[in-house]
Specification:
alpha+beta, 13-stranded antiparallel β-sheet
């Protein structure tokens, strides 16, 4: 009897601490910190990714194979490696500015601010989605509004609203981030009128290089049945050393 009582007291005293200990790190995070950690959990200071990008429409589809290099917030480069007709088309990001190189006409074309909302290469991603991927960290304020289940994963539901002086195309974003792994699972993009424009889902969590990340990213526009763009990450290296001068207009011409 005495043993049973002592055991019950031990469980009653220790068990709450065991429960709180499993989640204490995420419980103490602000909405801003959760978004920051989710961003960095998918990236490193410098990395490369090999991907396929499949644009799907009701009556046709097409696929691109790409290689991407990135460093910090300010540097990004992507080159299309297949199919042959698009091979060598490259895209570069320096800060919030971007350029395309088109081999067929031997021209580098700057992407203007008015083109940010336009489709990238006919896909369901916008130029801003690529040029300002870190925008969610700097251009928005964050508010934890709920916790919801996304595909069996309990997620923080965070509302991101643009700062007054932010030059962004979205009126707000709703982001779902896994409570346990702090990985982004879903993002909804809304216009300034509050209408849902597109939804990004991230699935197929796998180890790529030294990180565990979502390897399938699906962008689906709202009210366009049968439309979606699926990015599949095939491989990557998150321990790269890339010099700043790699990201240059001259190098854009040499990547094919």
């Amino acid at each position: 009897m005495q043993y049973t009582t002592m055991k019950q007291l031990f469980v009653a005293f220790i068990f709450p601490f065991l429960l709180s200990g499993t989640d204490s790190k995420s419980q103490d995070l602000s909405a801003k910190e959760i978004v920051d950690k989710a961003y960095y959990n998918e990236r490193s200071e410098a990395y490369t990714l090999d991907m396929t990008i499949k644009v799907i429409r009701p009556k046709w589809s097409r696929a691109l194979t790409t290689r991407t290099w990135a460093k910090g917030f300010n540097y990004g480069m992507m080159v299309i490696t297949a199919p042959a007709k698009d091979e060598g088309v490259s895209f570069m990001r320096l800060g919030s500015e971007g350029w395309n190189f088109i081999p067929s006409i031997e021209r580098i074309v700057k992407i203007s601010p008015s083109q940010m909302a336009q489709s990238w290469m006919g896909s369901d991603y916008t130029n801003e989605d690529l040029l300002k991927e870190a925008s969610i960290l700097h251009d928005y304020t964050h508010k934890l509004i709920d916790k919801e289940n996304v595909d069996g994963i309990i997620c923080y539901k965070i509302e991101a609203t643009p700062k007054p002086d932010a030059a962004v195309i979205w009126g707000k974003k709703i982001v779902w981030i896994g409570k346990e792994d702090l990985l982004e699972r879903k993002t909804e993009n809304y216009d300034e009128l509050g209408d849902l424009i597109s939804t990004l889902t991230k699935t197929d969590i796998k180890e790529i290089g030294s990180k565990t990340i979502a390897t399938t990213l699906t962008m689906t526009p709202n009210n366009k049945e049968g439309y979606r763009t699926v990015v599949t990450i095939l491989g990557g290296d998150f321990k790269q050393e890339i010099d700043d001068y790699f990201f240059s207009k001259e190098n854009m011409r040499q990547l094919n």
